[in-house]
Amino acid sequence: MLQLQTVPAQRVTQIAVLEEFSVCLIIADRSLISYPLDVVAPVSNFPAPLHDNPRRAPQRLAKDVSFFAAARMKERMLVFYKRKEGVHNTFFKVLEPVFHRTTEKKSRWLGSSRKSGSTESFRDYDEFFFPTECYSLNLFQTYIAVATSKGFELLTLDKKQPMSIPDVKQPSIANIASRIRDQKPLGMFRLNDQEFLLAYEDCAVYVDKHGDVSRTLIMEYSGKQKKAKGATLCGQYLVLFNDDYVEVRNAENGRLRQIIAGRDVRCLDYGARGPTGTTSALGGIPSSSSGQIDSKTTVKIGMTHPEIPGMQIVLEMLLNDGHLEK
Amino acid sequence: MPLLCLESTNDDAVAKQNRIAAPLGRTTTSVSDTKLNKIATNGSDRPGLEPTSSATTVPRLGQPLATDPEGRIMYPFRIKHLGHDMYTLYAPTPQVRQDWCNKIIEAKTRHAKALFSQNAEPFRLRVLADSAFAYDGIAAIGKQPGVPIEGTPLDRAIRDLESVYGPGRGPPPVCRAQVNCATGFSAYGKSIIAIGTDYGVFISDATDPRGWQRVCLPHFRLFSFLSFFLLVLTCCNYRLYPLSASHKSLC
Question: Taking a C-beta distance cutoff of 8 angstroms, is the pair A63, A49 a contact?
Answer without folding.
Answer: no
